[in-house]
Specification:
This protein is an all-alpha fold and 105 residues long. The protein folds into two domains: 1-37, no CATH class; 39-105, AhpD-like (Up-down Bundle). The protein is built from six helices and no strands. Helix 3 packs antiparallel against helix 4 and helix 5 runs antiparallel to helix 6 (90-104).
Length: 105
Amino acid sequence: MVKKQTAGRDNLGDFAPQFAALNDDVLFGEVWAKEDELSPRDRSLITCASLMSQGLFPQLEAHMGIAKQNGVTQSEMVALITHLAFYAGWPKAWSAFDLAKKIYQ
């Protein structure tokens, strides 16, 4: 079961209320909640892979924490980063490993 997300409203509710509502209610409330299609664990792996590939490290850090909560193990995260190093870039992998060490240790 996906935890109810409030990050949009917590961080942007007063400044960008429509974006905050879309983040919390649609992205997390509907898309992430479709567990009959993809599990939260699988969604976390996909999301981390996408964020690392794009070099979006502040968001990657947050989603690695969510991935850990969703059951992605340290060894799986290390395997994901190692695999993507060859597709997304070696420097991005180094940066992602820094985040993974922080989250998993």
